[in-house]
Amino acid sequence: MTSLNCEAQLRLPNLPNYIDQITDRLQSFDADVEQEARGITFRFPFGHAFFDMEPGGLVMRATADDRDGLARIKDLLATAVQVYAKEDDPRIDWIGDLSNDTQLAQFREMTVLRVTDLTLHMRRIRLAGNDLGRFGKFGGMHIRVLLPTKAVPDPIWPTLGGNGLPAWPSDDRRPVARVYTIRSLDIDAGFMDVDFLVHEGESVGAAWALQASPGQKVGIMGPVGRPVRQADWYVLGADETGLPAIGRLLETLPAGTKGVAFVEIAEQSERQPIDNATQIELHWLERNGTAAGTDERLARQILSVEWPQDCSTFGWFAAEASAAKIVRDRWRGTMGLGRDQTLAAAYWRRGAAGLMAG
Ligand SMILES: Cc1cc2nc3c(=O)[nH]c(=O)nc-3n(C[C@H](O)[C@H](O)[C@H](O)COP(=O)(O)OP(=O)(O)OC[C@H]3O[C@@H](n4cnc5c(N)ncnc54)[C@H](O)[C@@H]3O)c2cc1C
């Protein structure tokens, strides 16, 4: 099969300051990394990339067998550079295969098919769209949902920019993004289910979910997020926002997988049935009147779990930002575990709108 190739030449005078962070981030997307004198090779399951380090700059080369793979690698590289090379204000122009493409590989327009209330505060919304195969690839479980708002009721969807990243319309037509988990995906039937927590306060995602009805259109982009590594044993922890991901993991991890999962919910009536296919024990923690994101009970519970020493292990945590920080500091700091064994993410922050959606 002929492979697709492209490259981008970047001026990055301060590259030595942040190359390790870029490498670390790319490695966490399931890449095998090989460092040589002149550069770094990243072998992803869907293609590979090479960083040719030059004085004052970097040439990024990407190769994949298909369009989806090349688009994914370009997006990962360009995003990593944008995140860590801010001080150099990088300009990325890809040349080579697909560089004149304006169709954004990771975007789909979706139509609401069905709206179901799982509990008082959790709504499952079935979204239908074409060609959903890529949302089962790359190990990412999440999507950016692009939503209309009162200010922008009729948004224009993004296209592909020359830098390999999305090009957005002007603010008066730009949809608002929020991050959600693909709770389940049926590629053949052409739909996915997304569970929206209907939380208190002014919002975009929760407000949209509350009024959603069949026939409405939204955009999605993805998949996003680092893959959860395969392991024999897991410790999983989440509040309601990470419950869709835990539900999906418990339903899809291999049957012999062991471990423990804690899910924090407002009260008992927010429990939902999960078809747990694993030997991971699921426990519910109820706040019973305490406001979401204000206490450390979930984080402390997760940190009290002892990790076995005789098998492969993975720690996964998703909740409000301060709880995620407590868990991340312990796992990555005190326990010295790497990104290959842990993922502790802030899924929302009290008082902040649209965390992680940018
Ligand atoms: C990778 C990832 C996957 C996620 N998956 C899901 C998912 O499947 N389902 C889901 O419901 N959420 C999920 N989230 C969390 C969701 O993106 C955030 O809760 C987001 O803020 C919701 O957007 P919003 O427009 O409703 O509220 P925003 O406009 O972002 O926030 C408005 C106000 O509401 C508050 N707020 C936000 N979330 C909560 C909450 N959970 N409880 C109480 N107050 C809150 C904010 O602090 C702010 O004050 C995920 C987040 C990430 C990063």
Task: List the defining traits of the structure above.
358 residues; alpha+beta; TATA-Binding Protein; Elongation Factor Tu (Ef-tu), domain 3; Rossmann fold; 3 domains; seven-stranded antiparallel β-sheet; six-stranded antiparallel β-sheet; 6 helices; 20 strands; 19% helix; 35% strand; binds flavin-adenine dinucleotide
Topology:
Layout (H helix, E strand, L loop, with lengths): L3 E8 L3 H13 L4 E4 L3 E6 L2 E8 L2 E8 L2 H18 L9 E3 L10 E11 L4 E7 L13 E6 L11 E2 L5 E2 L8 E6 L2 E3 L4 E7 L7 H7 L5 E8 L8 E6 L4 H10 L5 E8 L13 E8 L10 H7 L9 E8 H14 L7 E7 L10
Parallel strand pairs: 16-17, 16-19, 17-18, 19-20
Antiparallel strand pairs: 1-5, 1-6, 2-3, 3-4, 4-5, 7-8, 7-15, 8-14, 9-12, 9-15, 10-11, 13-14
The protein binds flavin-adenine dinucleotide.
Flavin-adenine dinucleotide (FAD) binds next to β12, β14, α3 and β20.
What can you tell me about this protein's structure?
With 358 residues, the protein is of the alpha+beta class. It folds into three domains: 4-96, Alpha-D-phosphohexomutase, C-terminal domain (TATA-Binding Protein, 2-Layer Sandwich), CATH 3.30.310.50; 107-224, Elongation Factor Tu (Ef-tu), domain 3; 233-348, 3-Layer(aba) Sandwich (Rossmann fold), CATH 3.40.50.80. Helix content is 19%, strand content 35%. Helix 1 packs across helix 2 and helix 5 runs parallel beside helix 6. The longest helix has 18 residues, at 67-84. Flavin-adenine dinucleotide (FAD) binds next to strand 12, strand 14, helix 3 and strand 20.
Number of domains: 3
Mean pLDDT: 95
* CATH class type of the largest domain: Mainly Beta
Note the run of SSEs as H and E.
EHEEEEHEEEEEEEEEHEEHEEHEHE
> What is the CATH topology classification name of the largest domain?
Elongation Factor Tu (Ef-tu), domain 3
Poorly predicted residue ranges: none
Major sheet: order of its strands? Answer: 12-9-15-7-8-14-13
Please state the CA-atom Rg, rounded to the nearest Å.
21 Å
Approximate shape: globular
Instruction: Please give the count of helices.
Output: 6
Range of strand content: 35-45%
Structural class by sheet pairing and helices: alpha+beta
